[in-house]
Design brief:
This protein has helices at about 55-60, 90-100, 115-125, 135-145, 160-175, 190-205, 220-225, 245-250, 255-264; strands at about 15-25, 25-40, 40-45, 70-75, 75-80, 85-90, 100-105, 180-185, 210-215, 230-235, 235-240. The chain has a six-stranded mixed β-sheet, with helices on both faces. It has a five-stranded antiparallel β-sheet with strand order 2-1-4-5-6. By secondary structure, the chain is an alpha/beta fold. It has a domain at about 110-175. Helix 3 (about 115-125) packs across helix 4 (about 135-145) and helix 5 packs parallel to helix 6 (about 190-205). Helices cover about 35% and strands about 25% of the residues.
Length: about 260
């Protein structure tokens, strides 16, 4: 457990998903999923490909809408659950406010290819948050320096390695000063050496008590960095608990079978 304070007294809920159901056509990909994340907590979501992990993240970050259940950021209800279970999203203003609460780091970086590193990091705080350009530029330089990217501010993404691009993407997300950071398989596009650089940054953020939800296939990393691990299979949460509970002493055969494939 990295962030003991997340479970001791400091329990303000940052995001709450309740009874989420999401379908693509006739295919139900999330079935009655409920997940709450407290301030300062690091939650890793593990499971086989196609199990619903990334879809859950996309629902939490408003890239997908779900049909049933509710979503809230703190006290702000984003989608409410009607008496019949149906989800009703609130107005555009609420959605806009909700998007300011989180940062999202994709597996394929999603940087603007023709903008410099510095422009990529500064764009959203200035354009979306309407913050002072000088203040944002100072913060962007500090973040890039912290992540070993000082001197690369004027490069464009294609001049950087994959690991460097992912570090720019993390700096871009952090420059929005989000309450929670989501990572969707942040190292899946990287070779092993570059993977370690990115994982070190996420480890350091965990030490700083950044609230994070990480979809990952890196089991050793998940075990080291997480306060809680959630195992999703076929659209349902099969098991969740501390890393020691879920990885070292899983209670469900589906969890044991998944971990055997990973470790064997």
């Amino acid at each position: 457990m990295t962030n003991g304070d997340a479970s001791m007294g400091n329990t303000r809920t940052i995001v709450s998903l309740d009874n989420i159901e999401k379908s693509f056509g006739d295919n139900v990909v999330l079935k009655d999923i409920s997940l709450k994340v407290a301030k300062g907590e690091v939650v890793s979501i593990i499971g086989s490909s196609g199990g619903g992990k990334s879809t859950l993240l996309r629902c939490a970050t408003l890239l997908e809408t779900f049909e049933r259940g509710s979503l809230a950021y703190g006290d702000m209800i984003v989608a409410r659950k009607e008496p019949d279970g149906r989800a009703v999203y609130l107005g555009k203003d609420i959605l806009k406010q909700a998007r300011l609460k989180f940062g999202l780091v994709f597996q394929n970086f999603n940087l603007f290819p023709h903008r410099t590193v510095l422009q990529n990091v500064m764009d959203a705080p200035i354009r979306v948050q309407k913050r002072d350009k000088g203040e944002v530029e100072k913060e962007a330089h500090e973040l890039l320096s912290k992540f070993g990217l000082g001197g690369k501010e004027n490069m464009v993404p294609c001049e950087l390695s994959g690991g460097q691009q992912q570090r720019v993407a993390i700096a871009r997300a952090l420059c929005m000063n989000p309450e929670i950071l989501y990572f969707d398989e942040p190292t899946s596009a990287l070779d092993p050496e570059l993977t370690q650089d990115v994982l070190k940054i996420i480890r350091d953020l965990a030490k700083e008590h950044m609230t994070m939800v990480i979809v990952t296939h890196e089991m050793t990393f998940a075990r080291d960095v997480s306060d809680r691990i959630v195992f999703i299979d076929k659209g349902v949460i099969v098991e969740e608990g501390s890393p020691e509970q879920v990885i070292d002493n899983p209670q469900h055969e589906r969890t044991r079978s998944f971990l055997r494939k990973i470790y064997d």
